[in-house]
Amino acid sequence: MKWFSALVMVLLLALMLYATSDLPDHADPQAPANTYVSPTYIENSVKDTHTPNVVTAILADYRGYDTLGETVVIFAAGLACALVLMKKAGEKEDR
Amino acid sequence: MIRQRYQSIIIQSICSLLIPFIQLFAIYVILHGHYGPGGGFQGGVLLAVSVLLQRLYLGKEVAYQKFPPKLALALGAVGMLIFGLAGIVPMAFGGSFLDYAYLPLPGVSGAELRYLGILIVELGIGLAVFGTLVLIFDNFIGGRW
Predict the structure, then answer these.
(1) Which 3 state secondary structure label does DSSP give A41?
(2) Average pLDDT over residues A79-93
(3) How far is CA A5 from the centre of its chain?
(4) Is 90 exceeded by the pLDDT of residue A68?
(5) I need a labelling partner for A58 at 20 to 30 A (CA). Which of B11, B39, B58, B135 fits?
(6) Count of H helices and E strands in chain A?
(7) What backbone phi and psi angles, to 5 degrees, belong to B60?
(8) B44 versus B57: which is more confidently predicted?
């Protein structure tokens, strides 16, 4: 079973490496993100949201779903921390 | 006067002087996210730091009375709830998920409404981050709460 997991991980790594060969180069001006996504945000963010800070407009409005996920991850981490470390009602305090 | 953990007058004075300014700056960072660097995550961390400083210089017994750990958990959950409602409420009024232009606030519409929606979401993020960090700290220093 351990070897099977390792095999799956290696295959996944190979798949990821194969997929990255198709991605555009870093900071490529012809990449789709740079040809229309970024210009659209930069040109329309003030008109759409009245927010001068384009970073905030993207983070909280255009990409709000992503920010919701980030916040859920942080909150879930805190809850998991509490679940692991919290003393139960009858447990003795050790300091 | 309440019993303090450190009897040094320097630590007491500096900490009690610093905490209100840290909190004020945290609120400024959250509310100023529209115009400059900042926002919910950074402001929430600053707000948590002020409570952690209070925990450190007052000691557990006194600080837990001033800011109970359960309140941190509740505030974090309320922050998540604000964010979730900002996503779901527009769906009930004909928009899509997290489409602030459909929030049912009277008197504002369009871009102004999205501006307010960003502010609501930033407040929710700030509360959630604040509650989570205080929760993690309280659990790491141990003890029953």
Answers:
(1) helix
(2) 77
(3) 25
(4) yes
(5) B135
(6) 5, 0
(7) -65, -45
(8) B44
Place of tokens 């409005």: A61
Whether B43 has its CB under 8 Å from any CB of chain A: the answer is no
**How is residue A67 written in tokens?**
């920010």
pTM summary value: 0.84
**Chain A contacts of B125, Cβ < 8 Å?**
67, 71
Q: With a cut of 80, say whether residue A80 has pLDDT above it.
A: yes
From CA B117, how far away is CA B99, in angstroms rounded?
9
Question: Which is more confident, B85 or A33?
Answer: B85
CA dihedral (B78, B83, B85, B89) in degrees, to 10, reads: 160
| Dist CA A19 CA B128 (whole Å) | 36
Distance, C-alpha A19 to centroid of its chain? 19
Q: Reduced to 3 states, what is the DSSP secondary structure of residue A32?
A: helix
What ipTM score was computed for the predicted complex, to two decimals?
0.85
Average pLDDT over residues B20-38: 93
Nearest to B47 by CA among B145, B109, B142, B137: B137
Residue A71 CB contacts under 8 Å (≥ 6 apart), including other chains: B40, B79, B80, B83, B124, B125, B128, B129
- In chain A, how long is the greatest CA-to-CA distance? 63
Does the pLDDT value for residue B5 go beyond 70?
no
CB–CB contact A89 B142 (8 Å): no
Measured in angstroms, the CA of A86 and the nearest CA of chain B are apart by 6
Query: Are B128 and B73 contacting, i.e. CB atoms less than 8 angstroms apart?
Result: no
Given CB atoms, is B121 within the 8 Å cutoff of chain A?
Answer: yes
Domain locations in chain B as residue ranges: 9-140
